[in-house]
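Record pair follows.
FIRST:
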Amino acid sequence: MKAMKKHCARVICVMMTLFWVFPANGTMTGGAYEISGDTFSVIDGAFQTGGNYQLTGNIEQTAVGTKVSIPATGSVTFTGDIFGGEEILISDGLHSVKFFINNWAGSLNAQCLSGAGGFPPPVGDTPPCDNISVDVGGGNNTPALAAARLAESISSSNHNLGVAVTSVAGGTVYLQNVISAGTLGNVAMTEIGDSGDVITLVGMSGGNNPGYELRGGFQAMEQGIIGVSLNESSIALGELSAASVATGTVVASVTTTAPTGYSLTMQDDGNLRSGANDINDVTDGSVTAGSEEYGFITAGQDAVILSDTAITTSDRTIAKRTIPTSGIQTTIQFRASLDSTQTKQGTYSHAIVFSSTVNP
């Protein structure tokens, strides 16, 4: 694939070349079971453990076990500005965590609370904790910004709630029950307090517990078909300026028939560079105009990177789904800024590699 040529009017510009790779499908791990018989075809939700199942028929056909599970999904929508005093209880079926939404100082988000909110909030509990702050202070009280703060709080490691944020769109946070700590099943969410009547909850629904589907013959070797595409093969961020953040986007589309869904990862071949000079990776979650920083953020139902994040030479999961999907899109936005006293002249570039795999 040829890198794109770009002429820059001044002295600092950025370009990237994008690639796809297709690693081999992963395999399940766990115990092995051998069953003899003339025919075999079974779906049994009672099996909750194990990994590989082998069935042998009288013509020496074999089958493998494929994990079949559908996670419940739900959402939280902010319909107006938040001024504090709201409380939401979210459960994964095993654990429940109360999220206190308040208008504090803008610096206490996603921290453990040692009591029932208030101003200032009583912080200090040791994770995992059952009360988490969602701070919309510091100008974060609009629906979209409040949703981003709630997503950050739910995604924090301060609690053991088995609920993942799949995406944030406008004022809505889309959630999914996950098996790592939860039950995948249907769970209602509860508004304990909504002083402004500006929060709408859709409880977890549409899920089931995992079972194993056993398939024989040639189809047993098939983990599922996956199809992927990028709408661009290269991106130019253009001329960087200390006055604003330069951005460029690419949209990845994924279709898979695999019952376990897919994972989309991304890595680079090294820092964004021009000869011996490079642009610093973002480290504080936000690429800011006037600072030398570079990173990316994702958007879409399956997106998992919700704040500006550095690109590294190791695979980083940027989108994921645990059920089949058709044409699901994830937008990846690359973001760069410079420090006029620090960033050196040059044309900066590097290569980005996307990988897509069927989940084991």
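SECOND:
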Amino acid sequence: MYRSPRAQFFVVRVNRWWAAGLVALLLAVLALPWGSPPPAAGTGGPRVAEGVTLLGFDFSGMSEREARALLGELATGYRAMPVAARRFESADGIPYTVPELNGFQLDVERTWLRLATAPPGTIVEPAVQVEPATTRLADLPLSAIRQGNGEKQAVALLINVDWGADELARMLPILKRKDARATFFLSGRWAEQNPNLTRLIAADGHEVATHGHNLTHGPKALARAGRLKDDIAQSVRVIEEITGQTVKYYAPHKSEVDQSILQTAADLNLQTVLYSLDTVDWNEQYATPERILETFRQAKAGDLILMHPKPNTLKVLEQAIDLLQSRGYRLVTLSEMLSPDPLLPGRSSGHESGD
């Protein structure tokens, strides 16, 4: 009798962990984006939000790699070398110093972090690395200041005040409207007689300094009489009590200066300041509006421009400010002018102290 062969069965023992791994591998393979190239290195991660700009460039949607590449290009031009403080002697034999200016360069790493975290529509300020100047003003012998650093694209208006309250009250709105700040060298006597106007000067963001207290005599005569230090100190007390500002600068009456006057001011923690351009506007017969404006036409970066609250100055003040600003100069306080901190291009504010 014929017997058909029996079916044979083979039992394969499968390890459950091995099977689970195989299934996971198959699922991962199926999840791959077949037909699409792998993502380029550096394009993942955070992207800059929409509408974020820096130095006039739109970084919207850029990846870190793209943003860093553009920042690297910008860094080649966004830098300046430091300039050391220097000492000179004027034509009249008076030594004077020009303050130092720190250098800077774009900090790509920190600027990228600002871009990456900026909300949509933000104008991002660049971060910088500051390189200090090798020689500082404090390293040089005691001298007067009569010029700012010419590498700083700014000028400073020095306004001596011992009269002219009506003109000054009309000058302040012009300065405010034009976003121009100045340093007012007040006599203590004038500040006592005009406390509200003195407060308004400070409240408008201007700087106050001293021109001495009683200008009946010049500083040389006061020094010979042994009264110069008391005169300056009295003016400082008056101005500081009225404004709450610390007085740091002294402009001697008649621009009289010698080593004794410099030292007297220094003993009161004051820096003596002269000027590089003089409008001579106190002399109304000579200083016509056109001649005053011509002085402003001669201005260059770093100049300290001396003026007074006089009618002819008031007539051309707005035009003079427009002229200076059209040349790219910022009108800053004396402290900003003499500060070693650079005025960074593309900044809305005056300076950055090495953030």
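COMMENT: The first strand starts at residue 53 and ends at 54.
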